[in-house]
């Protein structure tokens, strides 16, 4: 596995549409393994292949809405399609390709995705809350869309500070069995 460089907003690759994966080979597995390492290293909740310069429909999403005591799960989605969505959530969203910037984005609160795994097997997965938001955000990346195009309210430095203060407060109140991976959850995708 190797860390890959995360492209930043302004790189034209981020605005391009990614192509479907047709070969579920060693090269895809290498990409997924590298993306996993890169995402965990960046402490984000999601990463799309175009963010590491590969215009293929591949994303990773950290399922942070697991039950109490369950480990967060990193979901590999190849050729993902959002097939159902309901509800609504309005909240701050960020991106590893747009560091330090958060904007208010409206998303569905419940999302169903159909995708393939690294071997080409089809599966469906539901996500709520932050995970639903990440499914939408990462799928957008595959179509060359960044969240900054979807928000008309970028948080000011004061609002950002308030958001981080609230997150720190929530973290302090949480009883976390393993004590880590609780911060940065509302951060980059
Ligand atoms: Ni992103």
Walkthrough of the structure:
The protein has 189 residues and is α+β, with helices and mostly antiparallel strands. The chain has one domain (12-174): Alpha-Beta Complex (Peptide Deformylase). The chain has helices at 26-42, 129-142, 157-173; strands at residues 46-48, 58-63, 73-86, 89-95, 98-107, 110-116, 122-128. A five-stranded antiparallel sheet has the order 1-2-3-6-7, sandwiched between helices. A two-stranded antiparallel ribbon has the order 4-5. The longest helix is centred in the first third of the chain and has 17 residues, at 26-42. The protein is globular. Bound molecules: nickel (II) ion. Residues 95-97, 137, 141, 189 line the site of nickel (II) ion.
Quantity of strands, as a count: 7
Q: Outline the biggest β-sheet.
A: 5 strands, antiparallel
Number of self-contained structural domains: 1
Q: pLDDT below 50 for ≥5 consecutive residues: which ranges?
A: 179-184
What key attributes describe this structure?
3 helices, Peptide Deformylase, globular, alpha+beta, 5-stranded antiparallel β-sheet, 29% strand, two-stranded antiparallel sheet, 7 strands, 189 residues, single chain, binds nickel (II) ion
Ordered list of secondary-structure elements with their pairings:
Elements (H helix, E strand, L loop, with lengths): L25 H17 L3 E3 L9 E6 L9 E14 L2 E7 L2 E10 L2 E7 L5 E7 H14 L14 H17 L16
Antiparallel strand pairs: 1-2, 2-3, 3-6, 4-5, 6-7
This protein binds nickel (II) ion (NI).
Short synopsis of the structure:
With 189 residues, the protein is of the alpha+beta class. It contains three helices and seven strands.
